[in-house]
């Protein structure tokens, strides 16, 4: 791992990494790329911006960045622009050596830790900085409420520093914690409004077993105050329980929060609000989602915490290598549970159909991206065909209001779908459309990174796999059934092994097992047995979640 303190060194490091020369001996010492797969030609780069004083909340961002990128950069920079004069800039906890050790343990490639003078290219803080620096101003509508009320210039400091970091590092992805919920919403707007080519990844709040959200500022608390501070998450939890039981009045939820907070007189509430999670506008009454956020002073520390209240139906995510029987199992699980099979294959077919229908050149990637950005693909659970009740119902598909369930199954579409599915712009547009289904839930989805990237909050995650030998045997049987004769098992095993290797190392949607996924090895199990196990798991899990 390297630690660099200057912009010029950072730029050179990134040039070398991007040209494929990086991470060799001169850059990263003896750190090798994640085995067993070689890196794709242009390494993906993940950035984790921090202010140091690292704790497991930060480490969870690094862990996710490590899983999803070849190169991980962490910035450690206590940004004076986001502190007002009476705040704790001067005392902000710092322990550089400990931070570096933790980054090293997380497999970080580079820590960028500039001084204020180096980063802003100016000497002198305070008025000098704000008088001379170009800044990025977030929209007033997002900064007037919540933390912005007591910290009116804070988010301008955050958007300015993050814009600079994104512009310098140009990461593929940047990782931020949901603990700073208002910050994350503002940064999502920043990236969208300024068309910055980085994907922001929001990561769940990491808490102590007591429920206290981890924060560098927890270091200011005495043991007694630390105990008092646990009331924050208890208050949010009580309101969350009420929401799950059907309460939708903002005032009623906030009354519960205040009631619980009042049990700790040492905790001075700054605000507790319910707002829309995307626009941050206050909500009197919640639809199926709301962000409940609060800030409170506990002794010397100003602490924040929040919970997203979301009523959605559960999600089942099935990932696994090719040939493990995912799509059949997924269809059966969806039919057994009455959920929508999020048939991503059908979505790619629908895009292909649309492009053919519009007479577009399929190789014209920008043209395809443009048409797709103006189109809507809708899926609905199919109904059983009374003439063939043994068949699983096909998912019904609409493109821009026109039903294309049958039209997407023509040989013309089949022959061209892989060309469309290989386009990065198509994949990212479809992942966004898939995530929209995730907002309401009630779906079963299968792929390579559903439980890790597409729906990391899925209630049930399965990693469906089978040994290479078993998959080769199944493939051999399929080929015999299709009248293609007997293919040598050894050859099939080699092909499947190679496919696994490619799937784990591809730059788009690589195969990853979520740490909280249940691994189901299907050797020797029938499709029915596998389906039954998943259905039973779903029922147990959903029963656990119902208050
Ligand atoms: N408990 C947590 N869980 C998940 N992410 C977190 C947690 N705490 C901080 N982060 C995220 O880590 C990144 C860096 O945060 P920062 O360095 O300000 O740490 P912090 O603990 O939030 O500090 P502070 O006490 O100043 O609020 C931010 O994206 C932040 O949201
Ligand atoms: C994003 C950030 C690193 C910018 O200074 C900071 O606001 C933080 O730590 O959340
Ligand atoms: N995590 C936000 C940093 C701050 O409070 O300034």
Automatic annotation (TrEMBL):
Residues holding ATP: 51-58, 177-180, 206, 214-217
Residues binding (R)-pantoate: 82, 183
Spans annotated as Cytidylate kinase: 308-547
Matching CDD domains: CMPK, PanC
Subcellular compartments: Cytoplasm
Catalytic residues (positions): 58 (proton donor)
A single MF term (Gene Ontology): ATP binding
EC number: 6.3.2.1, 2.7.4.25
Pathway: Cofactor biosynthesis; (R)-pantothenate biosynthesis; (R)-pantothenate from (R)-pantoate and beta-alanine: step 1/1
Span of domain Cytidylate kinase: 316-538
Catalyzed reactions: CMP + ATP = CDP + ADP; dCMP + ATP = dCDP + ADP; (R)-pantoate + beta-alanine + ATP = (R)-pantothenate + AMP + diphosphate + H(+)
Binding of beta-alanine, residues: 82
Gene Ontology, cellular component aspect: cytosol
Alphabetical list of Pfam families matching this protein: Cytidylate_kin, Pantoate_ligase
Keywords tagged on the record: ATP-binding, Cytoplasm, Kinase, Ligase, Multifunctional enzyme, Nucleotide-binding, Pantothenate biosynthesis, Transferase
Region feature (Pantoate--beta-alanine ligase): 1-307
Any one of the GO BP annotations: nucleobase-containing small molecule interconversion
Key word Ribonucleoprotein present: no
Reported function: Catalyzes the condensation of pantoate with beta-alanine in an ATP-dependent reaction via a pantoyl-adenylate intermediate. Catalyzes the transfer of a phosphate group from ATP to either CMP or dCMP to form CDP or dCDP and ADP, respectively.
Family assignment from sequence similarity: Belongs to the pantothenate synthetase family. In the N-terminal section; belongs to the pantothenate synthetase family.
Protein name: Bifunctional pantoate ligase/cytidylate kinase
